[in-house]
Amino acid sequence: MNLNPEYASKGVAGAGLGTGIAGLSLGVLNSMGGLAGLTGLFGNRSTAAQNDVLTALLTTEMMRGQSRPETCGENTPVTRYELTQAQTIAGKDAEIGLLKADKYTDQKLTEVTAYLMGQIKDLAAEVRKNKDEQTGVNMQQVAYNATNSATIGCVQSQVAALQGMTKLVIPNTSVCPGWGAVKVTPEIATTPAA
Description:
Order of helices and strands: HHHH
Low-confidence stretches: 5-9
């Protein structure tokens, strides 16, 4: 891309020169009575043919006065003004793109937050339900533990009683009948003769 200011001045001057030539030609034609004044120049040709010749003449003069063609391409020189405009537009396009991206990101973050809050709410309800169920299970376990503790305490006292029976004297009346009368005689200790 060529940023030489000479191109711009040549383009403006060339365009002005081409416009001036065309204007002068039309002024001369007008003073001669328009296209009809060229009849001597063109002989007895029709007006359509005169118009075609005049159009070709004017187009040639206008194109000769221009320093660059009116087509755009990669090798077409631009002015500083055009470059500044293009850069400004590109900057604004970038800013608009950034704003659109920010808006899209905000929208997606809002959607994700709403989805996660729904998931959290569902999980909280499930945890609350599990907690209530666990409380019921814990209460049943407390009752079961209390019953087992009482039963184990009773069994332990019975076992202790059975262990202590070997040291107890059971009266004859407490033993099943059929054994008959029992006599317990104390043994007299004898001392050896000295």
